[in-house]
Every structure is written in structure tokens, then in C-alpha cells.
Design goal:
This protein is α/β, with parallel strands linked by helices. It folds into two domains: 121 residues, no CATH class; 271 residues, Vaccinia Virus protein VP39 (Rossmann fold), CATH 3.40.50.150. Helix content is 44%, strand content 15%. Strand 5, helix 11 and strand 6 form a beta-alpha-beta unit. Helix 3 packs antiparallel against helix 4, helix 17 runs antiparallel to helix 19 and helix 18 crosses helix 19. The radius of gyration is 24 Å and the shape is elongated. Keywords: Lipid metabolism, Methyltransferase, S-adenosyl-L-methionine, Transferase.
């Protein structure tokens, strides 16, 4: 099979066929059909999904960043074409690849022979797609990691894409966090409302209470609480989110109880809140900043008040998100994840008392399924609003994240804690009452 490759390094050096090299790296039983611009093919003849490598630029993207980063670069540049799958929901392809594709790391000698066989020019990386952010070390030139300036830039990259784009993907709730499905047939909107009701119940919110919602997004939790008679303040680092949320508050006649501010949570001056909710913000904080983060949130609570932290986690402390992988370079710059156990430990160290914890990872897989379906259904308008590359990135990352939640590679934990009085009184019921 690899005759051309075996000859490389000898007297005769014919050009290697790309299909042969794919077989060398992933085996002859490729679960999809692959074809390349040099006329070579491999994989299942009868496959309904196929990949086409259109030109040498795509090959150079892949050769200079082997793995998912190079593939994504080629895909966004239009050099790697997917057939038989919708770009707004490529879950089927990603599931097949995860199940059946086994990448074989070549030996240094084989890698050198492959490079020579293709021509050393493939090791010259093309210009990166404009949607890709700088690697971590270059971002440091724009500010210390998780400083206010750099955090604001990271949030702007992800959330200030277009409010209309998010409306098309998220649906009427405009909620960009894990929903909670009361049953398998529940709609996305029903599940998002159920999530807010769950958070309100865990926090024990009642009319007249005061809530601080940090990283409030488009104000979903703030408006839900206000409708229950709670005075709610939300803060976000996204200017577009704050404008959308405040307009929605006024439209719904909640201005006397609800407010969303464009500001860093660290600049909130009010205190003695009955409850604090943090829904999907911890992922952006940075693990090293957790003690300061939870200490600050504790300082905003009255004694006896409750804090609910809802965030994506890793299944254990040993796994970490790749610092310069696709998610960090295209989706969540500076994002960091750790385990629920680590989060609980930090809460304890700053003097909070954890009282309840649960894992909702299956619910997040279902949430992402519905977001992908929305993106696919509204594809043309989404592309017109945010650009085709941005829409493609969202399709890929949501489908990949769905798969990761299903396979327990990432999780979603809600941790409820109290600011317990010095004498030990927690103001917490004997049994959960939500």
C-alpha cells in the first residue's frame, strides 16, 4: 500500500498520494469517504458522509497543526469540504469519527518520510482564518490573563457576535446555559424556564428578596426572579447583552424590580443580597482566581444568604482543557475548567458551606442538540447575520460539546452553598424544599 512512501529517502522520490498517507495515519477502514485534489481516495465507498480536500493550502493547514486545529482551519478556509452533513449540525459526522476513527501517531522517521513525500512546502503554514484568536503567550501582550481588560476582550470575542444571531440559535429564552428538561419530550423553552425555576427554588427566593446574578447574559434569570417579586440586579461584560437585556426588562414592565448593568462583577458595590447566582460564569474566571471570586461573592451576601454556582466542569482534577486547542482559539479564549470537587473545596476554604450538588450533564447534551437544530433551521439568516465562518464554528463546537457531555468528558454541576453564621445557623431547611 505504501510503496511510494517506502521509496522516499532512497534514490527515487515520487510524489506521495494523500489518500495513502491518510490510510497510514488512520488505517484503511476510514468510516467516511475521503478524496483529495491529487485524485486519491480512501474510506468506505458507500459512506453517506464524505470529506474533500480541495487544494494544497488545506493540506498545509493540516500538516502544520495535526489534529482538530488543522482540520478546523482548513474547513473554515473552504479547503476541506464536508458533504452529507449540515454545517449547522455536524453531530453525526463527529459521532462517527469519535466512534470509529483511530489516529496513529507516526514515528519521527515516518513523519519525516511523509513530509518529504508530500514536499517540504507543506510545512509552511498559510495565513490563519481571521476568526482565530492569538495563542495564549501572544494574548499576554494585551493584558495579564483574567485581568479586567483581558476578560472584557475575551467576553467580547464570544458574546458580542450579534444579538440576532443568538436569537436564532438560542430561541425565545435567549439563554446560553444548560437547560433542565423535566422530561425527554420537553421543548427547549420549557427546559430553560425549568432551569430558572430550579435555581430560584434552590436559592429559596421569595417576594421582597434581593438577588445578584453575575455573568447574567441576556438577563433571563434576572427577569425570571423579578416576575416572582424579587429585586434582581444582573451584571455582564458584554455591552450587547446588557443593551438587549435592559430593553427586554422595560418591554416586560419589570423596570421597578430588574436591572442589568454592563460592568465587571468585581465592581458591584451593593451588598447584603439574599442570594447570588452565577450561571455559566465560572468557566471564564480562571482557576487561580477562584478563591478571590468566591470570597467576593460571599462578601456580597447577607449572613444566611445562599449562593448557587452553575458551570461546566471536568470529570476529575487530572483533566484540563487544551490551552491552545480549537475551543480556546475560536470559541472561549482564556476559558478554564476544573472539577466540581475543586470548586467545592475552594468554596469551603473561603468560608462558604456547600449544602447541595448535582450533575446535569445529560441536560446540557440535550440543550446543545436543540441549539444545533435551531442553527441548522435558521442557517441562511444566521450566516447573513454573523458570517459563514462564525456560523460554521458554532455548529462544530456545539455538536462537539454535545458529544463530550454524552460521553462524560465534561460535566455540568450546580453547587449550592450558604453564608453560614458564626454560631453555625445556616437558615437552610432540614431537607431540600425546591
Amino acid at each position: 500500500m505504501n510503496t511510494r512512501l517506502e521509496l522516499v529517502g532512497g534514490e527515487r522520490q515520487p510524489r506521495a498520494k494523500i489518500g495513502e498517507i491518510v490510510e497510514l495515519l488512520v488505517g484503511a477502514e476510514l468510516p467516511v469517504r475521503f478524496s483529495a485534489y491529487d485524485g486519491s481516495t480512501t474510506g468506505k465507498e458507500e459512506a453517506t458522509i464524505s470529506l474533500r480536500l480541495e487544494n494544497e493550502r488545506g493540506l498545509r493547514y493540516i500538516a502544520t497543526a495535526p489534529g482538530e486545529l488543522g482540520l478546523v482551519r482548513a474547513y473554515l478556509a473552504g479547503d476541506l469540504v464536508l458533504d452529507g452533513v449540515h454545517p449547522g449540525d455536524p453531530y453525526e459526522l463527529m459521532s462517527i469519527v469519535a466512534d470509529d476513527l483511530k489516529f496513529r501517531m507516526p514515528s519521527p522517521d515516518t513523519a519525516l518520510r511523509v513530509a518529504r513525500g508530500l514536499g517540504l512546502g507543506v510545512l509552511h503554514r498559510p495565513e490563519l482564518p481571521p476568526e482565530e484568536v492569538l495563542p495564549q503567550w501572544q494574548r499576554t501582550l494585551k493584558g495579564i490573563k483574567h485581568s479586567k481588560v483581558r476578560d472584557a476582550e475575551a467576553i467580547h470575542h464570544h458574546y458580542d457576535v450579534s444579538n440576532r444571531f443568538y436569537e436564532l440559535v438560542l430561541g425565545d429564552s435567549m439563554t446560553y446555559t444548560c437547560a433542565c428538561y423535566p422530561d425527554l419530550d420537553a421543548s427547549l423553552e420549557t427546559a430553560q424556564d425549568a432551569k430558572y425555576a430550579l435555581v430560584a427554588g434552590k436559592l429559596g427566593l421569595k417576594p421582597g428578596d434581593r438577588l445578584l446574578d453575575v455573568g447574567c447574559g441576556w438577563g433571563g434569570m434576572v427577569r425570571h426572579a423579578a416576575k416572582q417579586g424579587v429585586k434582581a440586579l444582573g451584571v455582564t461584560l458584554s455591552a450587547e447583552q446588557a443593551q438587549w437585556a435592559q430593553r427586554k426588562i422595560e418591554e416586560e414592565g419589570l423596570g421597578d424590580l430588574a436591572e442589568v448593568r454592563y460592568m465587571d462583577y468585581r465592581d458591584v458595590q451593593e451588598s447584603d443580597f439574599d442570594a447570588v447566582s452565577s450561571i455559566g460564569l465560572t468557566e471564564h474566571i480562571g482557576i487561580a482566581q477562584y478563591p478571590a471570586y468566591f470570597r467576593f461573592l460571599k462578601s456580597r451576601l447577607r449572613t444566611g444568604g445562599r449562593l448557587l454556582n452553575h458551570c461546566i466542569t471536568m470529570p476529575n482534577d487530572r483533566k484540563r482543557v487544551e490551552r491552545n486547542g480549537v475551543i480556546n482559539r475560536y470559541v472561549f479564549p482564556d476559558g478554564e475548567l476544573t472539577s466540581a470537587g475543586h470548586i467545592i473545596s475552594v468554596m469551603e476554604r473561603v468560608g462558604l458551606e456547600p449544602r447541595h450538588e448535582e450533575n446535569l450533564r445529560e441536560h446540557y447534551a440535550m440543550t446543545l442538540r436543540d441549539w444545533n437544530a435551531n442553527l441548522a433551521a435558521n442557517w441562511d439568516e444566521a450566516v447573513a447575520e454573523a458570517g459563514e465562518n462564525r456560523a460554521r464554528i458554532w455548529g462544530l463546537y456545539m455538536a462537539g460539546s454535545r458529544l463530550a457531555f454524552e460521553r462524560n468528558e465534561i460535566q455540568l454541576h450546580q453547587v449550592l452553598a450558604t453564608k453560614t453564621a458564626d454560631a453555625g445557623k445556616s437558615s437552610f431547611p432540614l431537607r431540600p424544599d425546591w
